[in-house]
Write the structure tokens for this entry.
Amino acid sequence: MQGRRFPDGQERDLGYYKARGGAYPDEAARDLELDFDLVMKATGELRREGRLVEA
């Protein structure tokens, strides 16, 4: 992980999923060079907020 704060990772995840039209969290973590656990936390929070919907 490169020291990114959670909200930055969250916004980056959201942009990634929007740009791709969806992806698996492991793909997002790899492509964004973020820790997988951070991506899972961020996507979970985005889902709870209703900003990301699981297909």
User: Anything to note?
Assistant: Residues 1-5 have pLDDT under 50 and may be disordered. Helices lie at 6-20, 25-32, 36-48.
